[in-house]
Write a structure and sequence with these properties.
Length: 297
Amino acid sequence: MSVLSIQNITKKYPGIIAVNDLSLEVEKGNIYGILGPNGSGKTTTLGIVLGITRADAGSFEWFEGKLGHKPNMQIGCLLETPNFYPYMTARKNLEIVAHIKKDQNPRIEELLELVNLNQRADSKFRTYSLGMKQRLAIAAAMVGDPEVLIFDEPTNGLDPEGIAEVRETINKISQRGKTILMASHILAEVEKICSHVAILKKGKLLASGTVGMILTADKLIEISSDNIEALKNMLSNIQGIKSVDEEKGYLIVTLPEDGISAMQMNKLAFQNDITLSRLIERKRSLESEFLEITRNA
Ligand code: ATP
C-alpha cells in the first residue's frame, strides 16, 4: 500500500530552487531515508508533505488519498530540537503531549519503554542528556499511535552511543509495522537504518530505491553472446559473482567492487571459445564524488 506518493514537486525561493521536480513513492513499512548534503532540500520536502510549506508545483498524496492533504493523527513528526517543559518529568511531559494531541488513552508506560526511558521517566527533562531528550521527542511523536513517523536528522548532535540508541528506537518502531520517513546527511546512518533511500542534490533527485540497490559499491557487467547457455556456464565457474540476472538478450553480472574485471571476463570467454557480442562494465549508479560528500559529512 502506498503511504506517500509525491509527484513532481517543485519549490522555489528567490534565487534558488529548493526542490526541483521531485517524485517519490513511500510504501507501508518502509524506513525511507532522504539523503543529501546541507541545503539539498530535505527539510523543505518534509515541510511540504506535512502541509507546513506550500509547493509551487506538483502534488502529493497520503494513504492513497484517504486522508486528503492535511496530515492528521496518522502522522507523527520530529522536525527540530524538541521543546519540553524543563522542570517537568518525562512522564509528565508526555502526558501534556497526549492532552494536546487529544489522545484520551495514551500508553505512556509503553512509550517510555519503547524509547528506553522507563528507568528515568520521573527525572526532570532538564537533567536529560541530548540523546535522552531526542528519544523523548520520538516518544512524543509516537503519542496517538500514528501510522507514519517523520524525523528530520534524528541523530543530529548526538554522540555515538546516543546515535546507536536512536537507531535502535527507530528499528523498534519499524518492527511495529510503522512507516518511517527520515532526512539525513549521513550516508552511513541511512545505510544502517533505512530500507529505502532517495538521494537529493540541490533539490534534484539523483537516485531512489532500496538501500541495497542504491548505496551498493558493487559493479555490474553486462555481457552477451550468441550462446547464452555457454556464457552462463562460464560464469558459474567464476568465484565471487553475487548474482547473474537475465535481461532481454544479455546477462547482468553483479560483482563486488574488487571482483573480476570486464577485461578479464573477455579473456576468459575467449579461452572458452565464446565470442562476446556485448561487454559493458557499468559504473555505480551514483557519482562516487557525491557519495564521498555524504559519507564524510
Ligand atoms: P539542511 O540539512 O541544512 O537543513 P536541507 O537539505 O534540509 O538542508 P533545506 O533546508 O530544505 O535543505 O533547504 C534547501 C534550500 O532552500 C537551501 O538553499 C535553503 O537556503 C533554501 N531555503 C529553505 N527555506 C527557505 C526560506 N524559507 N527562504 C529562502 N530560502 C530557503
